[in-house]
Design brief:
The protein is of the alpha/beta class. Helix 3 crosses helix 6. About 2% of the residues have low confidence.
């Protein structure tokens, strides 16, 4: 009799689990879709894009139209970092023709991305022009140090031949900054990944990025200590990063 009762209890437990699994999966999918739309990246950088996020058992499909080619990668990296996401099928289309590789327009976009997610420079106050691989920076910098750092970041973009820094040093904006703004971990991870890929010194590194409560961990291989230190420096300057743990190994 005990054996029969145990079997009945086991069957009931399995049946209950099977009944709950679809509901749990549906809740996870709804949470993924909502989290993507509420992420810092989607609300800050992708707010003008028409992006649809659909999740089915953790497999996410992105459809719609984005204004810039890097928006497509940024959306994918952000969604990939959300809890519960197993895969991302990126079907996003770019509104205008994608810049030809190694063209001035392509290079301008890469320089813009290299500056975009930084807290130590002001991408919004920096104008980027490119002619035959030569970058010209105009606009305003809050200090001489910021002006020099902006040029330093631009010089390290793959394909840049030289940089003419014509920025002027003006008083730092008195507008309230968003330094204390809460940035979700998925958005931080995406920004760090895009930043590392935009620099020639770190683009070739096979770096894995993980973020937990603003603390970024870097994994992968570097050729030397200088590359490791640069990866740490670049990651530390990304919006929302509280600290960086570099767990990369030197080959």
């Amino acid at each position: 009799m005990k054996a029969i009762n145990s079997f009945v209890v086991l069957v009931a437990a399995v049946a209950l689990l099977l009944l709950n699994t679809p509901a749990q999966a549906e809740n996870t999918d709804s949470r993924i879709e909502a989290s993507a739309k509420q992420s810092y990246v989607f609300k800050t950088y992708l707010q003008g894009d028409d992006i649809n996020v659909a999740s089915k058992d953790g497999a996410v499909t992105l459809t719609g139209i984005v204004a810039e080619s890097y928006h497509k990668s940024l959306a994918q990296e952000t969604v990939a970092g959300l809890p519960g996401v197993k895969s991302v099928d990126n079907r996003l289309a770019i509104k205008d023709a994608e810049p030809t590789a190694n063209s001035d327009a392509w290079l301008r976009e890469k320089v813009r991305v290299a500056l975009l997610f930084r807290r130590s420079v002001s991408a919004s106050r920096t104008e980027v022009g490119v002619k035959d691989g030569i970058v010209t920076l105009r606009g305003e910098a809050g200090s001489m140090a910021q002006k020099e750092l902006t040029a330093e970041y631009a010089k390290d973009v793959e394909g840049v031949k030289s940089v003419n820094n014509e920025m002027i040093v003006a008083k730092a904006s008195t507008k309230k900054q968003t330094v204390g703004e809460k940035i979700d971990d998925a958005s931080i991870t995406a920004q760090v990944k895009m930043t590392l890929l935009s620099h020639r010194s770190t683009s070739a590194l096979n770096t894995k990025v993980e973020t937990k409560r603003g603390v970024v961990s870097l994994y992968g291989k570097a050729r030397n200590a200088a590359e490791m230190n640069l990866a740490t420096k670049l990651a530390n300057d990304v919006n929302g990063v509280s600290s960086v743990k570099n767990r990369m190994v030197i080959e």
